[in-house]
Amino acid sequence: MRKALLIIAVIAITAPHDSYALSLADYRLFKDVEPKLIAAHLESVGTGFLWANATLNGDGQTMLYCAPPRFMMNGQNYIDLLDDYIQRDVDLDSPDTPIEMLLLNALRNEFPCEK
């Protein structure tokens, strides 16, 4: 746990102060070293997307993505979805791309909303 906190502290200190996103390069570096930490981060981000979807839906606006009813994701599901998306669709020359944005794109790709 101390190692994980140290990693987070180093990332927070060295990251640009206008963004606390996790870069694709850092995701690749830490995914196998601290899988529980990465899964927890992605699950937290995913929960934020769920809340955003609930708000958008409640306001009658188009949701970010449209997962099937009662469909639940966990940290490992998000990792699998993100890894599949990265393998298929991401320009691998962009190591600074935030994985949070990639996760949203992966969700939108996997669960598109009807137009």
Features:
single chain, 115 residues, mainly alpha, 5 helices, globular
Explain what the structure shows.
The protein has helices at residues 2-14, 24-30, 35-58, 75-89, 99-110. The protein is 62% helix and 0% strand. The protein has one domain (21-110). With 115 residues, the chain is mainly α. Helix 3 (35-58) crosses helix 4 and helix 4 (75-89) packs across helix 5 (99-110).
From the spread of the alpha carbons, the general shape counts as globular
Give me the count of strands: 0
Largest sheet: none
What is the end-to-end distance?
45 Å
- Broad structural category: mainly alpha
Task: Tally the helices.
Answer: 5
Q: What fraction, in percent, of the residue positions are helical? A: 55-70%
What is the beta-strand fraction?
under 5%
> Uncertain segments of ≥5 residues (pLDDT<50)?
none
Ordered list of secondary-structure elements with their pairings:
Layout: H1 2-14, H2 24-30, H3 35-58, H4 75-89, H5 99-110
Helix pairs in contact: 3-4, 4-5
Gist?
The chain is an all-alpha fold and 115 residues long. It has helices at 2-14, 24-30, 35-58, 75-89, 99-110.
